[in-house]
Design goal:
It is a single chain. The protein is of the alpha/beta class and about 240 residues long. The chain is built from ten helices and eight strands. The chain has one domain: Alpha/Beta hydrolase fold, catalytic domain (Rossmann fold, 3-Layer(aba) Sandwich). The chain has helices at about 20-30, 55-70, 85-95, 115-120, 125-135, 145-150, 155-165, 200-210, 225-230, 230-240; strands spanning about 5-10, 35-40, 75-80, 100-105, 135-140, 170, 190-195, 215-220. Strand 7 (about 190-195), helix 8 (about 200-210) and strand 8 form a beta-alpha-beta unit. It starts with 5 loop residues before the first strand and ends with a helix.
């Protein structure tokens, strides 16, 4: 009999593992025994790393180390936003023997050999471009910009939580070329956030095409940070996938 999976959550840019807590709490209300692991990428909270020199390989290695320390060997790999450049490398190393399902949530997936920066559209590209041009580590977005990019349509309390949890981010990693040439073909779901101001639905569909082999696309009428705006709905979607 196949054991129940461990849901491994990988956050996006300017976020930490804490962004997943509302969804994890919702999952546990449905299934108190659900196993989960929300990782911090290098340079966040207690996870060591130099944001000014951060690489995709370092993000992959950090995620795998945390998974191995957790002992998880039957994994649903879930990523949000800029985690789209980390998930393929994690899947490549762990392989189909350990990863049973991939879930991309409003992820950035550049074309093979291209960069995150090359995919962005105005006005997000203007903000990111200005940051990366002058600094190697960007400060958290100002409140109004963060609320517009991540939290449109949320309650005031949810918006305050999103802004409060933002952290500095590596600007150099957005200029690193991605390589998915050895990514295994795994069952894959894409959760498409239809009210997303960071990655508009049309752009997400481009990313779906870039990724290829996506088995299902689930549209949800919410903003970029669905794990905080609609945690119960996201929990239901995740628990029904493996």
């Amino acid at each position: 009999m196949t054991s129940s999976p461990t849901f491994v959550f990988v956050h996006g840019g300017q976020h930490t593992a804490t962004c997943w807590q509302p969804t994890i709490d919702a999952m546990r209300r449905t299934d108190p025994d659900v196993a989960s692991l929300a990782v911090d990428l290098p340079g966040r909270r207690d996870e060591p790393g130099d944001l000014a020199a951060l690489t995709i390989d370092q993000c992959v290695s950090s995620t795998i180390r945390q998974i191995d320390e957790n002992g998880a060997d039957h994994i649903v790999l879930v990523g949000h936003s800029m985690a789209g450049i980390t998930l393929p490398g994690v899947a490549e190393v762990l392989g189909a023997d350990r990863v049973v399902h991939m879930v991309y949530i409003a992820c950035c997936v550049p074309p093979q050999g291209k960069t995150v920066m090359s995919t962005l559209k105005p006005p997000v590209s203007w903000i990111a471009g200005a940051m990366s041009r002058f600094v190697k580590v960007s400060k958290p977005l100002p409140g109004p910009a963060a609320k517009w990019m991540f939290a449109n349509g949320m309650t005031d309390e949810q918006k305050r939580q999103v802004v409060a949890e933002l952290v500095p981010e590596s600007a150099v990693i957005t200029k690193e070329m991605v390589d998915r040439s050895n990514m295994p073909d795994l069952p894959t779901t894409w959760i498409l956030t239809m009210q997303d101001n960071s990655l508009k639905p049309a752009l997400q569909r481009e990313f779906i095409a870039n990724l290829g082999n996506v088995d299902e696309v689930v549209e949800v009428d919410t903003c970029h940070n669905i794990m905080m705006s609609e945690p119960a709905h996201l929990a239901e979607l995740l628990l029904s996938r493996p």
